[in-house]
Write a structure and sequence with these properties.
The chain is mostly helical. The chain is built from five helices and four strands. It is globular and about 35 Å long. 39% of the residues lie in helices and 7% in strands. It has one domain: Winged helix-like DNA-binding domain superfamily/Winged helix DNA-binding domain (Arc Repressor Mutant, subunit A, Orthogonal Bundle). A hairpin with a 2-residue loop joins strand 3 and strand 4. The strands form two sheets. Strands 1-2 form a two-stranded parallel ribbon.
Length: 110
Amino acid sequence: MKTLPDNFGARVLSVVRRIPPGRVATYGDVALLAGRPRAWRAVGNIMRHCRRPDVPCHRVIGAGGRIGGYGGSEMLKRSLLAAEGIVVSARRIRELDRVRWRGRSPTRTH
């Protein structure tokens, strides 16, 4: 398995902090915005171990709108999303196209 540079984790946390209340992004969206489009699994691991109150990890979801486990507390994640006006039904975000945040991809300068 290829090891990602340490600054990837910092970029992931920076991206997640930018997800506005009432919006969600997939692990793949976050990976893309952090500069590693195929590192969605690494994003999941970073979210799993993140305990920082300034990082809204609950706004990061699985592909297709699956809410994921949120460190074993799916009900807490569901409650946090509901408090922001996001409707979850059958473990999926309803109206995903409306609430999905894709941010902006990093611009490359050469």
